[in-house]
Amino acid sequence: MPSLIARIDPVDKTAGDRARAYLDTLTKPPGSLGTLEALAVQLSEISGELAPILTPPAVIVFAADHGVAAEGVSAFPQAVTAQMVANFAHGGAAINVFARQINARLEVVDVGVLGDVEAPGVVVDKVRRATGNIALEDAMQLDEVEAAVQVGVNAVARARDAGCRSVIVGEMGIANTTASSAMLAAFTGTPVEQVVGAGTGLDSRQQVHKAGVITRALAARAFDAEKPLSVLAALGGLEIAAMTGAYLAAAACRLPAIVDGFIATVAALTACRLCPAVRGYLVFGHRSQEPGHGVALEALDATPLLTLGMRLGEGSGAALAFPLLQAASAMMAEMATFTSAGIADKSS
Ligand SMILES: O=C(O)c1ccc[n+]([C@@H]2O[C@H](COP(=O)([O-])O)[C@@H](O)[C@H]2O)c1
Ligand SMILES: Cc1cc2nc[nH]c2cc1C
């Protein structure tokens, strides 16, 4: 991992300045395309180009189970993780639909599902079968964290080798909002009650129980909040570690990564704590309804593109945001300038 981190350069601010200047020559009042203009600048900073090609996008969904599911912290049984992996493989999940809409290369990676999934096309890269129950023991050993991070790095390498020019990372793992909330509380010191939510649909009484489990885990586990890998080992998840690796790898390849919801943003925060330069490569797709997402976004000083009241995961919100990135790049490539269109510029 140190060699991967050494390969991550800060984004190119000079290319961003060039993009900003070019934007003001296009046939529109300066700044009138709002967030799309900021997005175009960021895509130039990432790629070094005025109008980078972003297609095809890669959608990589990492799946894993969580021992803490035994504490009754999810509205759904643990078996749903494996069942949804089979659904991804057969093309029936929301992310399959949205990935098809944007012509993405979709890959599903089993980095730690408890059982064996008999389904075509799933990449089986199991580091272990589920994490330990964080209320009772560490989620993983440090060498398992490193192996799971590498699973994410390898998945991005496959996507790049297949010609992908942007990366969307998603996840599936029953109880992973518990692991994500615990990690976020550990990283930021935010009170547990402010980072706990319904996940797949807990009522308010069940959320109090979930907060109690997280509080116990935080008290019982040994970790150093300044060492992201130790936080992953004590409280995290195999898919969260793989997503962390995927964000690091996207940055090392100078590819934009679109961050999805709560779990994805906690993984993105983990990657940025490991290497702050990763932040410049991240575009935030949507704001999840999970309350901890706001805390995680604030920790990253991030404003998502869309607010759709979603809380699904799988990379779904990021996939829906992808056309906005395409629009930002296309506007740079295709819009006329004041000069080329013979339109009078703003009077001085
Ligand atoms: O992405 C989000 O913001 C999000 C918010 C709530 C739930 N999820 C999904 O729901 C699962 C975790 O919920 P839970 O209640 O089992 O912890 C997991 O598979 C996630 O993909 C995802
Ligand atoms: C059905 C279902 C689909 C999901 N996709 C991501 N997390 C999920 C959780 C459940 C329960």
What does this structure look like?
The structure is a single chain. With 348 residues, this protein is an alpha/beta fold. The chain folds into two domains: 2-52 and 332-341, 5,6-Dimethylbenzimidazole Phosphoribosyltransferase, Chain: A, domain 1 (Orthogonal Bundle), CATH 1.10.1610.10; 57-324, Nicotinate-nucleotide-dimethylbenzimidazole phosphoribosyltransferase (CobT), large domain (Rossmann fold). Helices cover 48% and strands 9% of the residues. It has a six-stranded parallel beta sheet with strand order 3-2-1-4-5-6, sandwiched between helices. Strand 5, helix 11 (262-274) and strand 6 form a beta-alpha-beta unit. The longest helix has 20 residues, at 142-161. The radius of gyration is 20 Å and the shape is globular. The relative contact order is 0.18. The mean pLDDT is 98. The protein binds nicotinate mononucleotide and 5,6-dimethylbenzimidazole (DMD). Nicotinate mononucleotide binds next to strand 4, helix 7 and helix 11. 5,6-dimethylbenzimidazole is lined by residues 76, 80, 84, 172, 200, 312-314.
Estimate percent helicity.
Answer: 40-55%
Instruction: From the alpha carbons, calculate the radius of gyration and give it in angstroms.
Output: 20 Å
CATH class of the largest domain: Alpha Beta
Number of helices, where a helix is a run of at least 4 consecutive DSSP H or I residues: 14
- List the helices and strands in order: HHHEHHEEHEHHHHEHEHHH
Bound molecules: nicotinate mononucleotide, 5,6-dimethylbenzimidazole
Task: Please tally the β strands and state the result.
Answer: 6
Structural class: alpha/beta
Strand order of the largest sheet: 3-2-1-4-5-6
Per the CATH scheme, the topology name of the largest domain is Rossmann fold
On the 0-100 scale, what is the average pLDDT? 98
Beta strand %: 5-15%
Number of domains: 2
Shape: globular
Q: List low-pLDDT spans.
A: none
Instruction: Find the CATH superfamily of the largest domain.
Output: Nicotinate-nucleotide-dimethylbenzimidazole phosphoribosyltransferase (CobT), large domain
Main sheet? 6 strands, parallel
Please report the distance between the alpha carbons of the first and last residues.
53 Å
Oligomer: single chain
**Annotated CATH architecture of the largest domain:** 3-Layer(aba) Sandwich
